[in-house]
Amino acid sequence: MGLYNLLLPLKLDWTPVYSCNTALRVGQRVKVNFNGKDYIAVVLSFKDNSDAPGFKVLEVSEIPQGLTDISETEIKLWKFVSQYYMCTLGEVYMAAYPKYKVSTELKKPKRKIIEGQVKSISSREKYCKPILYQGASRAQYYKERISKCLETGYSALVLVPEVESATILKEAIGIEEAIVFDPALTAAKRRNLANELRHGDRSIVVIGTRSSLFLPFKNLGLVIVDEEQDPSYKQTEPAPRYNGRDVACVMASLHNADLVLGSFTPSLESLYNCKIGKYSLVRGDNIPKVNLQLLD
Question: What are phi and psi of 58, to 5 degrees?
Fold first, then answer.
């Protein structure tokens, strides 16, 4: 019998320990009972039996069929959000996998689960320096970057500040196969999209708001954040209270994906990152020269 540290979709500042007679994998999802209620938990780590607690440990209730493992990259991103934005890991898990999403996975499992099927990205070469693209007309530049990404067999994520902007940007870019990830998608379409992204069967372009950051990308090669200065990328309620643009930067780094931030009026922090050499600044056409003066 093994002991495992499990992540539950609850606001807990500690990690519950459960036992299981079957060997479990990190990232595997299991059903457990906590305080009289059933939850789908994620295996975070194996706990050495020599460090067994001096009290009775509950057993894992069930290993559901049809639930694909959570990838190492997803867990790393969740941990960053939890630590940087000072919330529990369980709250991030709830945001990434809300109850309705897990329910649809359980109702209609689409694939046979293979041990070790979902892994972190390691085959892609190191990503280039992030780019801040400043310009009023950014669609053509985005299209060129996305097309190059698709040609290499990787998927792309394009973030927009508002849902209404997603369809407009899709038409401007002119990539018909791009998928707009918004509340209008049915549960079945969301499930199918997640399955395709998780297993990397084909290259996909997803355009959506900050919630798209929690999609289970496997072969992610490009992340674009349009209107990167927009305050709508910041989530205030409920937790996790995060900045979608900044999380997108970390997500790109974890996947070794290229990162492009686009804006006509970039944020000061992005301009500063260009000044210190962290980002590369690319200017589009007809960018007026503006003299900036710092007033103390």
Answer: -70, 150
Distance CA 194, CA 69 (A): 12
CA atoms within 13 A on the CB side of 64: 22
DSSP letter string, 51-97: G--SS--PBP-B--TT-PPPPHHHHHHHHHHHHHTT--HHHHHHHHS
pLDDT single digits (tens) 245-266: 999 999 999 999 999 999 999 9
Write out pLDDT tens, residues 187-224.
888 888 998 999 877 899 999 999 999 999 999 999 99
pTM above 0.85, yes or no: yes
Q: How far is CA 190 from the centre of its chain?
A: 15
Residue with tokens 């630590």: 83
Q: How far is CA 227 from the centre of its chain?
A: 19
Q: Are 280 and 130 in contact (CB under 8 A)?
A: yes
Compute CA distances 141 → 54, 82, 98, 230, 285, whole Å.
60, 33, 35, 20, 11
Q: Does residue 115 have a pLDDT over 90?
A: no
Q: Which three-class secondary structure state does DSSP give residue 19?
A: strand
In Å, how far from its chain's centre is CA 29? 18
Q: Give the integer Cα–Cα distance in Å for 19 and 55.
A: 12
Structure tokens at 31: 């059903």
CB 149 within 8 A of CB 206: no
Domains of the chain: 2-107 (3.40.1440.60), 131-283 (3.40.50.300)
Collapsed DSSP state (helix, strand, coil) of residue 101: helix
Tokens of 150: 């698709």
Query: How far, in Å, CA of 251 to CA of 126, rounded?
Result: 14
